[in-house]
């Protein structure tokens, strides 16, 4: 009985203990669930507050961006993200889709003048975008540009290489089509710019003003930190935009700006290697050149020395001493006067292709007009070690008879005097008493070359090495023939596709090659000539394609202040302002106007001016203004009278025309004297008649 009671009690205690443990575990689970629920509720509240905060920040950023866009765009807002593609072009003009034009024109952006845009790489992981497309892109590098046209596909923007380079992501592959943000902005006109080249080679470029004007004419904007790539004579120069005024981003359209080009800054431990190595007179420099490569030098000649060279009292020689005599390795020497900075095989003024050491004598003439010259050492064969220098010494003023005439030159001498005879072998004048002895010795040791036009007398051992080029007939030594044929007669291909021999190639690249470099008569820069212009009158005037396009720019006439094309400025001066006999000159047979007398434009006050058409005199300090208004109102108006008839030779049939009609004719042809209504009619008259 006690045993059963004890067993029942133990069982009951176990059950009670188990119930307590289960109740305790249940309480703990409920407590943990409440705590977890509280944590989740707190996390949700934090996430919700964070979301609301982010939305508030995004709304604030969008509002701030919108205000910034409106402020920078002067009331016009345009801020879009587009896929970028690369297009050809030398400037900073981009191509936008047609929808951009509609969006901008709807906000009267066209009435505000030229359109400028801020361009920045768009990074999705850092940009905060709202429903209106605004974002905070202050961390991305930006540049600025103008617009070329609105012909890009929808969703795309075409960027030229200049804009692509200055976006700060040159390592991005073009196939990935990176996204960029385009934002409309207004920019002030530039007053000052400081440019820093990456090397001192740009200092050697002549006429910085013309070079930079040509480059900036293709640009609409500049931004601090941009890299401006300038092309000159086949070489690209990188200029860093260091400083701009009055702002860090400016417009360069229709503005006069001051530009400073400063020396490049070299960092410690690095040296700037010049492409043109400086060379001083009478100071040799050692160097080497690989086969097919060029090494360039430059030297400056003082004006006093240059004048002496032109007068013939001093010599100016360029020496190239080849190590080893040119047997295993050899180099050629080319010299050119600036503005040609880098002479080559087909662009130079002086050249020497002799084997071994060589010298070029710079003689006086039209090629000695510059004080700066460039030297090119071209590796002809192997790795050539050389020494190059320029020498200038007084010339020896000696008189006497020239020694060593060829036989064909001796035949042109005057008749032989009494007591002398002509050697039948060397054709020299020899005393009669020694003629037999001389001829015996001469025929045994000397040989006359029988090549047509040569007849040079050589010793028999030298005659074995005397040869003539089978193509041009030039006399050479045997070891020089191979190089002569390769240099002068081996056809070479020009960049334009023409294949010619060396001499013809030099003429081709100097006169007719569309890729040749010329100095434009209008902008003063060295540019590629291009093909023949399409305009017939421009071709007859000798203008190249570039000069035809560059001369189409207008400039105000300094007399009447009318906008006239640069290529027609001389014609305008003769036709409009040179009608008086003292200011007009007769034209030549080709119709080119020569000897134009430009009116003086001094600072003195104008007392009186006479109309060159009707001879009305205007007096006073405002005579030029009155004359200009008179020309506009009386002579440059469109007349209702039918134009004068003329025959095919340009002879005027004005005998039956009334004097009232003649008074409406304002411009006279400088060639035939025919009067027409305007400069446009004069241009048409010259095209058809002359």
UniProtKB/TrEMBL annotation:
Family according to the record: Belongs to the UFD1 family.
Species of the source: Ceratopteris richardii (Triangle waterfern)
Listed name of the protein: C2H2-type domain-containing protein
Xref: InterPro entries: Rad18_UBZ4, TRAFD1-XIAF1_Znf, Ufd1-like, Ufd1-like_Nn, UFD1_N1, UFD1_N2, Znf_C2H2_type, Znf_RING/FYVE/PHD
Occurrences of domain C2H2-type (ranges): 667-690
Zinc-finger found in the keyword field: yes
Amino acid composition bias (Polar residues), ranges on this chain: 578-589
GO MF annotation terms: DNA binding; polyubiquitin modification-dependent protein binding; zinc ion binding
Pfam families named among the record's database cross-references: TRAFD1-XIAF1_ZnF (PF21366), UFD1_N1 (PF03152), UFD1_N2 (PF24842), Znf_XAF1_N (PF23580)
The keyword NADP is annotated on this UniProt entry: no
GO cellular component: VCP-NPL4-UFD1 AAA ATPase complex
SMART domains in the cross-refs: ZnF_C2H2, ZnF_Rad18
Keywords assigned by UniProt, alphabetized: DNA damage, DNA repair, Metal-binding, Ubl conjugation pathway, Zinc, Zinc-finger
Stretch list, region Disordered: 1-28, 577-600
């Amino acid at each position: 009985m006690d045993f059963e009671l004890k067993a029942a009690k133990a069982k009951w205690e176990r059950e009670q203990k188990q119930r307590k443990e289960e109740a305790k575990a249940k309480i703990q689970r409920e407590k943990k669930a409440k705590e977890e629920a509280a944590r989740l509720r707190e996390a949700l509240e934090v996430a919700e507050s964070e979301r609301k905060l982010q939305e508030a920040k995004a709304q604030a950023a969008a509002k701030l961006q919108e205000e910034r866009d409106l402020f920078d765009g002067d009331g016009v807002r345009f801020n879009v993200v587009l896929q970028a593609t690369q297009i050809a072009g030398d400037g900073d003009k981009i191509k936008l889709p047609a929808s951009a034009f509609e969006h901008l024109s709807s906000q009267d952006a066209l009435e505000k003048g030229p359109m400028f845009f801020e361009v920045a790489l768009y990074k999705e992981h850092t940009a905060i975008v709202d429903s209106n497309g605004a974002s905070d892109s202050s961390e991305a590098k930006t540049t600025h540009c103008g617009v070329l046209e609105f012909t890009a596909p929808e969703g795309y923007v075409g960027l030229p290489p200049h804009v692509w380079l200055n976006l700060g992501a040159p390592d991005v592959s073009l196939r990935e089509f990176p996204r960029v943000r385009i934002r409309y902005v207004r920019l002030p006109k530039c007053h000052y710019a400081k440019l820093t080249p990456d090397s001192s080679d740009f200092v050697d470029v002549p006429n910085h003003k013309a070079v930079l004007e040509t480059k900036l004419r293709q640009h609409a904007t500049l931004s601090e930190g941009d890299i401006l790539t300038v092309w000159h004579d086949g070489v690209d120069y990188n200029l860093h935009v260091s400083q701009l005024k009055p702002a860090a981003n400016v417009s360069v359209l229709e503005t006069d700006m001051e530009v400073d080009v400063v020396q490049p800054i070299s960092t410690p431990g690095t040296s700037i290697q010049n492409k043109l190595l400086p060379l001083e007179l009478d100071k040799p420099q050692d160097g080497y050149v690989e086969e097919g490569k060029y090494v360039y030098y430059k030297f400056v000649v003082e004006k006093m020395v240059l004048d002496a060279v032109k007068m013939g009292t001093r010599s100016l020689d360029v020496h190239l001493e080849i190590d080893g005599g040119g047997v295993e390795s050899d180099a050629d020497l080319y010299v050119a006067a600036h503005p040609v900075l880098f002479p080559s095989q087909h662009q130079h003024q002086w050249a020497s292709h002799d084997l071994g050491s060589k010298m070029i004598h710079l003689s006086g003439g039209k090629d000695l007009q510059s004080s700066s010259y460039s030297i090119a050492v071209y590796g002809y064969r192997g790795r050539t070690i050389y020494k190059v220098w320029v020498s200038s010494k007084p010339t020896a003023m000696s008189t006497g008879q020239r020694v060593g005439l060829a036989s064909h030159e001796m035949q042109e001498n005057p008749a032989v005097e009494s007591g002398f005879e002509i050697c039948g072998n060397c054709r020299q004048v020899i005393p009669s008493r020694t003629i037999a002895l001389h001829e015996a010795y001469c025929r045994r040791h000397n040989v006359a070359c029988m090549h047509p036009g040569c007849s040079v007398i050589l010793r028999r051992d030298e005659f074995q090495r005397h040869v003539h080029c089978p193509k041009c007939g030039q006399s050479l030594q045997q070891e020089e023939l191979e190089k002569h044929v390769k240099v002068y007669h081996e056809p070479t291909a020009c960049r334009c596709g023409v294949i010619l021999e060396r001499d013809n190639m030099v003429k081709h690249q100097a006169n007719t090659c569309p890729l040749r470099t010329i100095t434009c008569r209008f902008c003063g820069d060295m540019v590629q000539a291009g093909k023949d212009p399409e305009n017939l009158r421009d071709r007859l005037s000798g203008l190249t394609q570039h000069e035809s396009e560059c001369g189409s720019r207008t400039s105000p006439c300094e007399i009447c202040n009318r906008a006239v094309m640069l290529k027609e400025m001389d014609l305008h001066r003769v036709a409009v302002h040179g009608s008086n006999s003292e200011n007009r000159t007769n034209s030549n047979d080709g119709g080119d106007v020569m000897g134009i007398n430009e009116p003086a434009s001094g600072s003195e006050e104008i007392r009186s001016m006479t109309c060159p058409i009707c001879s009305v005199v205007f007096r006073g300090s405002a005579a030029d203004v009155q004359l200009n208004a008179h020309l506009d109102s009386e002579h440059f108006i469109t007349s209702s009278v039918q134009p004068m008839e003329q025959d095919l030779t340009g002879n005027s049939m004005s005998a039956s025309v009334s004097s009232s009609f003649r008074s409406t004719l304002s411009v006279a042809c400088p060639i035939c004297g025919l009067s027409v209504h305007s400069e446009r009619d004069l241009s048409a008259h010259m095209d058809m008649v002359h």
